[in-house]
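Repro:
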Amino acid sequence: MGRLICALILVSSSAWAVIETYEFSSPDLASRYHLLSQELRCPKCQNQNIADSNAPIARDLRVVLYEQLEAGQTDAEILDFMVARYGQFVRYRPEVDRQTALLWWSPLLLLVLGGLGVARHFRKKEHYPDQRLTAAEQEQVDRLLEDRIP
């Protein structure tokens, strides 16, 4: 029964796939189309690229991408057009600039801050000498422990 359900899920998931065919004037344009459609994020779906999304906006972006490729636009020109229209969010890997610097540099910044925090923690421990009990204190602890044990 479990295998039947898994098989049905796998079969039905292929029905959700985006199937569009475009007639490209060259195989190079087709490969560029596939690369760029993987690079561009669907503005509605947010976690899907336009190649995988069934949203109407993603369908429109695929058409625009196809038209721009056939018009002879370069990859950079197409990406610039999409960013100008939808913002840096439309790219999965936005360029490093003033607006995205924190996005790109925050992992390194957090790693450095974490390393500094760990170093500070261990350095603090070194400033405290090993505190041993005096003979009188040890005798008092032993006496208290003997009193508690029946």
